Amino acid sequence: SLYGLKQSGLMWYLCLKDKLNSMGFIKSDTDECVFTKRSKNSYEIILVYVDDIVYVGPNKQMGENFAKGLQKHFTLKSLGYINTYLGVQITKTQKGFKISQ
Questions:
Q1: Which top-rank group of organisms is this from (predicted)?
Q2: How far, in Å, CA of 82 to CA of 98, rounded?
Q3: Which of 37, 55, 56, 68 is 20 to 30 A from 80, comparing alpha carbons?
Q4: Rounded to the nearest 5°, which phi and psi values hold at 86?
């Protein structure tokens, strides 16, 4: 169990990073909490803030596949489409998403 340990945050991050790497995601060179995965036809982004994980991808099916991959290792709670993240309002539109503060 990680709860209560001084190193809990770091241990959680290293464990999550390892699982994301095994799923093909690569940590950004400029931000420890951003992971990306490129393929011929898609680009996926993972944003991590403590134990909140945001998936950004081209379609719902890929998001569900990502969640299934993580569920093999962790207990997840899906909150559906994102509305706010770190104080930023996110609105789904017909053309994509609108971001505002």
A1: Eukaryota
A2: 11
A3: 37
A4: 50, 45
Rounded Cα distance, 22 and 57, in Å: 18
Rounded to whole angstroms, what are the CA distances from 47 to 3, 9, 36, 101? 22, 16, 9, 18
Q: Give residue 4's Cα distance to chain centre.
A: 24
Classify strands 43-49 and 52-56 as parallel, antiparallel or unpaired.
antiparallel
Q: What is the pLDDT of residues 15-47, one digit of tens each?
A: 999 999 999 999 999 999 999 999 999 999 999
Give the ranges where 2-50 is alpha helix by DSSP (H): 8-22
Query: If DSSP codes are grouped into helix, strand and coil, which group holds residue 1?
Result: coil
- pTM attached to this predicted model: 0.84
First CA to last CA distance, the chain? 37
- Position of tokens 């053309």? 95
The closest alpha carbon to 45, from 60, 57, 27, belongs to 57
